[in-house]
Amino acid sequence: MVNSRLACLLLFMAVALASWWSAVICHNITAILDNFPDYSIQNGYMSSTKIADEVNSRQTITCLVLPNIVMSALAADHTPASLKNALRLLVLLDYFDSQKLHDIDGGTTITTTLFQTTGEAIGQEGFVNITNLRGGRVAFGSAVPGSKLTSDYTKSVRQIPYNISIIEISAPIIFPGLFDDGAASDANLTAILEKAGCKIFASLISSSGMIKIFQVAMVKGLTLFAPTDEAFKAKGVPDLNSLSSADLVTLLQYHAVASYNPKDSLKTAHHPIATMASGAAGNYEITVTVQGDDVTLHTGVDSSRIARTVLDETPVCILTVESVLLPEELFGNAPSLEPAPAPGAAEESPAPQVATPVMAPAPAPALAKGPATAVLSPADSPASAPAAESPDDVADKEDDRSTAAVAMVTSLCVAMAVVAAAVLL
Length: 425
Ligand SMILES: *[C@@H]1O[C@H](CO)[C@@H](O)[C@H](O)[C@H]1NC(C)=O
Ligand SMILES: *[C@@H]1O[C@H](CO)[C@@H](O)[C@H](O)[C@H]1NC(C)=O
Ligand SMILES: *[C@@H]1O[C@H](CO)[C@@H](O)[C@H](O)[C@H]1NC(C)=O
Ligand SMILES: *[C@@H]1O[C@H](CO)[C@@H](O)[C@H](O)[C@H]1NC(C)=O
Description:
This protein is α+β, with helices and mostly antiparallel strands and about 425 residues long. Helix content is about 45%, strand content about 20%. One 2-acetamido-2-deoxy-beta-D-glucopyranose binds near residues 108, 110, 129 and 131.
């Protein structure tokens, strides 16, 4: 019994680790663009708005980049928050190299962008029209009816077929209303939380005075994990009235991070995340695991899935969570609180999880494929990349480093699965 529990736990960890990595390893757009100083301004904005994380978590992608002179003119006219969607519109969810652009079927196509994935796009706003014009010219424009094809393909920057392609274009892709966006720091936090079904959390941060601290933080960066009203009513949640006011403030601070971390960025968090409660009094950290599109926060005492994004406007992000996050530093000693979600989850569905790695070790080989092909790629690339127009070597070094890390984690996952299997048998 103890052994099978241990096996389940190990397997669960291996599977969690495997799925966590599969969400992370696609590419590092920041590192790739670091080799091309002509696009350093766009690279900087892609990092600060966290668009880079959205790009890195997608396997097949084309990034349209603007030369610094064009990008700086665009940035001068707009706030970083309103630039975010303009940058998303430059990320195509398909692979286009020069050849494919010039060979478009029928000479025109509509392609989906990262902006479409936000749910904010109305009508055709999340799509881009690519059209071959006379004289070999390839033009880009918004797919919103009546838009002009105002942006031209100028050159290929870097290709890693068929994962990521970087292409320079002459001008941003814009539609009327793209930049209409209120400043997030002016948002009424209480109203937003109440509307999102987090009335109890809203009233706690108001009555404790925490709201003032959050509002100050919203200017520079704030992520809130707001428990829903159901979360506060759930079994196992300690009676908040029995907490001292200092502990209540700590608990509320534990639900906030003083930086901008939208859901896609949390997926790539490598380390435990410090919360606003972190400090001399304790670590008060949160760790993150990813399973497909699900992001789960772990406190050491309990776990909570992120339910939904209520507000995502750089630099403020409000996410609702399904459980109250109970920090180990405050609640770690109460054994009755241990809901054991990890072993519990592994136990409820042990059959598929045990079966998969033992009989047909699915996650491990899927992962192992990544490093294997990637290791081949430097030798491979001259042959497989006929249109190599740029110095690949520097970028490949960066790719190799993450490859090594992936290989290490892969072997760890495999080792854990093997140990688990051995214990089970
Ligand atoms: C991507 O590369 C940049 C610059 O080289 C580095 O700072 C960053 O940590 C990398 N991101 C990931 C997710 O590895
Ligand atoms: C793209 O835009 C051009 C010019 O507005 C238009 O003629 C063409 O039909 C559009 N392509 C598609 C696939 O809608
Ligand atoms: C924010 O919203 C709450 C609840 O809807 C309301 O009571 C409060 O007056 C609003 N505050 C401001 C500054 O508008
Ligand atoms: C492209 O992505 C696939 C799947 O993630 C990976 O296996 C392959 O190694 C990547 N190719 C290159 C050249 O990086």
